[in-house]
Amino acid sequence: MKFTVIVLDSVGAGELPDAEAFGDVGAHTLNHTLAASGVRLPNLAALGLSTLPTTDPALYPAVTRTPGSSAGRMREVSPGKDTSTGHWEFMGAVLVHAFQVFPDGFPSAVMDRFTAATGTGYLCNKPYSGTQVIEDFGPEHLNTGDPIVYTSGDSVFQIAAHLDIVPIEKLYGWCEAARQILLGEFAVARVIARPFRGELPYQRAGELRRDYSLTPPPTVLESLKAAGKQVIGIGKIPDIYAHQGFTEEIHTDDNADGIRKTLARMAQPYDGLVFTNLVDFDSKFGHRRDPQGYGAALLAFDAALPDLLAQVPHDGCLLIISDHGNDPTWRGTDHTREHGLLLAYRPGSTTGALGDRASFADVGATVAEALNVPWSGPGVSFWSRLS
Length: 387
Known about the structure:
Layout: E1 2-8, H1 29-37, H2 42-46, E2 69-74, H3 83-90, H4 108-118, E3 123-127, H5 130-144, E4 148-151, E5 156-162, H6 168-181, E6 190-197, E7 203-204, E8 210-213, H7 220-226, E9 230-234, H8 237-240, E10 248-250, H9 255-267, E11 272-278, H10 280-286, H11 291-310, E12 317-321, E13 340-345, E14 352-357, H12 362-370, H13 383-386
Parallel strand pairs: 1-11, 1-12, 2-14, 3-4, 5-6, 9-10, 9-11
Antiparallel strand pairs: 2-13, 4-5, 6-7, 6-8, 12-13
């Protein structure tokens, strides 16, 4: 059976009940992006996006529902609003404690080990916008060769370096060294390589980004692989799960490339899961507080949706989900604590509603049941609603 899951990274569907604890009451990535950009999404609306609670129907065109579509929202149980937390919960790894963050930068116990491992100094070492940090510290980096180290509201240790100064393999080596340091007492969810190029204003080389994740607890992905199913990770998906549970990994450069490669892989034979992340919504537009760019990215995905639906066989299924919010009209540059989006398409099924799911883990439980693979971990399958 062909099962496909596509994560629209950061396309949140409105504040979660506990949003106040995260300072995100009033955040709504979808509503605010569509209102600010003027973009309309007819194909996503036809899948049921405009029917979700708190989604403003005035922001969507009047359309006929796509037969076989179902729509709902998901609550995140884990305490966080970052990529790793959301994705791990999708596949049944629910966190009890939030990943550690470093709002004052990393302590000397970390940075002294980092400089010893790399043989360099470092610049910045505090929370920063990824685009602003290379503008502010890029010239000094070019003069000294010292890497730019920064973090954010997420549990991340990010290392930025100019490709003319630091060859990409050296940058990856620095990240691997940092990954070994940032365990235990100082564990962070991800170490991220952030290469950039050119002259001011520098350009981030997003196609060369690489994430070094903590190893998650056992997930549905490993259960699928152990059962002999194919598990095909596209985009940054394999990085997020520390490459655990995959039979095939496909790199992508951007959303358009991710869509192309997802379509191509869906068209080929497989028995299992194609699992894709489209990160541009988050990295290029959400964090940069660019509602026009965010809206244009949503419109591009909406235009590709008919081709994606056409690749779903009669006994297959497509889920379109999201891992958190990143409201481009919101204050600051961090993620927002929002419901996860949940849109489903299964040819021949009854058009319906999936309601408010109690956990992101319902996704993994559903994938496992659909592929007839035992899973006794968190999550409640909604496969029967799609059958």
